[in-house]
From TrEMBL:
The keyword Isomerase does not apply. SUPFAM superfamilies: S-adenosyl-L-methionine-dependent methyltransferases. This is site-specific DNA-methyltransferase (adenine-specific). The keyword Methyltransferase applies. PANTHER family: DNA ADENINE METHYLASE (PTHR30481), SITE-SPECIFIC DNA-METHYLTRANSFERASE (ADENINE-SPECIFIC) (PTHR30481:SF2). It comes from the Bacteria. InterPro entries: Ade_MeTrfase_dom_2, M_m6A_EcoRV, MeTrfase_D12, SAM-dependent_MTases_sf. Its EC number is 2.1.1.72. GO terms for biological process: methylation.
Length: 300
């Protein structure tokens, strides 16, 4: 197929309107390389832990994927993506008409926790907090602090024109986007039989360490083990890749699969460099990733 090429990895990173801990948009170019190397372009791509869906959206817009499935168990994050796809103009009007102020930040915090809020209201509140909270963490405090005395103010990541452009671009592709709000393992098992249509599943579960500090839905250790069991039992024709924060327990869970450890720049809270792991289903060709890489489980 004719795949529209992107010039830099940065261009793969800024299609989603949401900010997300871990910055996986930086991996979009690499996931595209994986698809090219394994002849997986032009079909269906699945992201069971979508969050900001940076990789999925990038692959759809670049032509590497013809259809994408994005899934998030959080009702708030799901409500945002539902608004993008089904109530686009109403969402854009809220973005345009709502001043980015501390008064509205406090109001959105209330809406975010309101069980009676409409899906559109909940989706917009999620978006507002994501763009005004530190590192996009929905549990975190506001950029600049409540007294707005910090060097950055709450609107530092809230360029209305650019964010509206991103939302419109994604909404124009709505016919190719399938949205879910399910447990990730259940979704994978449900879609796995669709082998002919499903080209690649990319899983980016909550971090093994500090997951409860970053995500609305975090995993206990048993949940991580159950995910490993699910992937191990998938039919061999299902192609998947998985990324995690580097930890001996994760390396042990996936010791039967080839993978590597690499360095990732984190922006959550403080700018730091961390180590991450990526694993692949059996039989996949693994392209090189720019930067520091160390192979793990080479004999798998």
């Amino acid at each position: 197929m004719d795949v529209q090429r992107k010039k830099t990895s940065a261009e793969h990173s800024f299609h989603t309107p949401l900010r997300y801990p871990g910055g996986k948009g930086k991996l979009a170019r690499y996931v595209a390389n994986v698809m090219e190397e394994n002849g997986l372009c032009g079909g269906t791509y699945v992201e069971p832990y979508a969050g900001g869906a940076a990789v999925a959206v990038s692959l759809l817009l670049s032509g590497h994927a013809r259809r994408i499935h994005i899934n998030d168990l959080s009702p708030q994050v799901h409500a945002f993506w539902r608004a993008v796809l089904d109530e686009t103009e109403e969402l854009l009007a809220l973005i345009h008409d709502t001043p980015v102020t501390m008064a509205n930040w406090k109001k959105m915090r209330g809406v975010f926790s309101d069980a009676e809020a409409s899906p559109l209201e909940l989706g917009f509140a999620t978006f507002f907090l994501n763009r005004t909270n530190r590192s996009g963490i929905l549990k975190a405090g506001v950029i600049g602090g409540k007294d707005q005395s910090g060097p950055w103010k709450l609107d530092a990541r809230y360029n209305k024109h650019d964010l509206a452009r991103r939302i419109k671009t994604i909404a124009d592709k709505r016919s190719a986007i399938h949205l879910h709000c399910k447990d990730a393992r259940q979704l994978v098992n449900r879609l796995a039989p669709q082998i002919a249509e499903l080209n690649l599943v990319y899983l980016d579960p909550p971090y093994f360490q500090k997951g409860q500090d970053l995500y609305l839905n975090f995993y206990e250790e048993d949940d991580h083990a159950k995910l490993a069991s699910t992937l191990t039992c998938l039919p061999s024709r299902v192609r998947w890749m998985l990324s995690y924060d580097a930890h001996p327990r994760i390396a042990s869970l996936y010791k039967k699969f080839k993978g590597f450890e690499y360095t990732l720049n984190y922006t959550a809270q403080d700018r730091t460099r961390g180590r991450e792991l990526i694993f692949f289903s059996r039989g996949m060709r693994i392209p090189k990733l720019a930067g520091s890489m160390r192979a793990v489980n080479e004999a798998a």
